[in-house]
Amino acid sequence: MTTLSSGFARARRWLRGHPLAFDAALAFGTLAAMICGSFTAPGDGHGPPAFGARTPELFSVLLMTLSAAALVLRRRRPMQVLAVTGALSVVEYVLMEPPAPVVMGTVIALYTVASRTDRPTTWRVGLLTTVAVTATAMLFGSTPWYSQENFAVFAWTGLAGAAGDAVRSRRAFVDAIRERAERAERTREEEARRRVAEERLRIARDLHDVVAHHIALVNVQAGVAAHVMDKRPDQAKEALAHVRDASRSALNELRVTVGLLRQQGDPEAPTEPAPGLAVLGELVDTFRNAGLPVEVACADRDRLPAAVDLAAYRVIQEALTNVRKHAGAAVRAEVSVVRVGATVEVTVLDNGRGSAGRRPGTGPVGGDGAGGIAPRPRAAPGGDAHAGAGVYGEELESGGHGLVGMRERVTALGGALTAGPRYGGGFRVHAILPVEARTGEPERPGTAGGTGIRR
């Protein structure tokens, strides 16, 4: 049984791959059925049809052969084949008595039309064919118009149209299911690629923040140690100790970040939570140890969503790193994190020397017409970095991604980020983050004032 079923399956696949061969076989089988039917005489109403009671005329055999031959082209020319087979059936009913079953070719042709066209076309063509063939059989036949043979013609042509329409509907339903499945598969693949790209971008931001922050501190402390090595060795040792602590912290954070790239099930996967405002004090202490006085006002630090908490921490880290690297000597910084309605406002200020008034080229990050950061002139030769027009321009971004990374973090959550010089000198970074993180176009919530708890 298994061998037989596999053989039928192979034959079915071959016939599907060769539709013309299938139609030729169907035409041959239809011709054989019509010829066998032409030898059968209808019963007298009290018994079954008698086989061999009559012999078909040569003209009827010719009509049956032409009708069957037309079926070979039923897929390529369905309407033309239906017209030819219908005309041959009408001719058979008009000229021959008793008629041979040439109408079998019309039934198959009508089924083909119904299965390969739309429903309105099926109704129109099917009704016309059924009426034409049935009316001819009733008007020109020797039997009464209400005989079962005439109603059989009506039933078979109507059944052919209904069956073809049902097959077409099922085929369309299966195709729709297959299309939806393919679309869902493409959507899943696109979603997977999008998530991979977002994860890569997030890891790149974390790596940049970690490296920029700690390497900047290492660079400052190493410079201090080199400067005071000969005259104040105790202070040089203290600076080198800070270098060691900063480098150790950098290695630990790099290990945690890179550990996210491990495959599932790899041993020693990182379990440390992502940094946030809960460890803001440790972050600020590293800058204070590097010689940057920082005042902090932070409220509600423990009641923020994880994504907002991490974004606020990274914005503060990047902003203080830029202050320490570029704001000059004797600079102070202020950090505030306040809850204003449904948003959290993060502000980092410094009093570095700079020209009064708003410098050209600064403004909302990513908010200009170009959708990015406008080019800014470089600092004047021999002057402080803050004295140039645009201290947070390309020269301030560690690796060229400082402000871009902050902007991406904030806008990815639906917030807004501005960075620019302060009136009277210094620089200001201001981020507005929604408490409920969301993606899409950032909204610009109002910047209502608020006070935090100074520590």
- Spatial order of the strands in the main sheet? 3-4-5-8-7-6
Radius of gyration: 43 Å
What is the percent of helical residues?
55-70%
* N-to-C span: 86 Å
Order of helices and strands: HHEEHHHHHHHEHEEEHEE
Describe the structure.
The protein has helices spanning 2-17, 19-38, 58-70, 78-95, 103-116, 119-140, 148-228, 233-259, 280-289, 306-326, 402-412, and strands at residues 40-41, 50-51, 294-298, 333-340, 343-350, 363-364, 416-421, 427-434. By secondary structure, the protein is α+β, with helices and mostly antiparallel strands. Strands 3-4-5-8-7-6 form a six-stranded mixed β-sheet, covered by helices on one side. A hairpin with a 2-residue loop joins strand 4 (333-340) and strand 5 (343-350). The chain is rod-shaped. Residues 354-400 and 439-455 have low confidence and may be disordered.
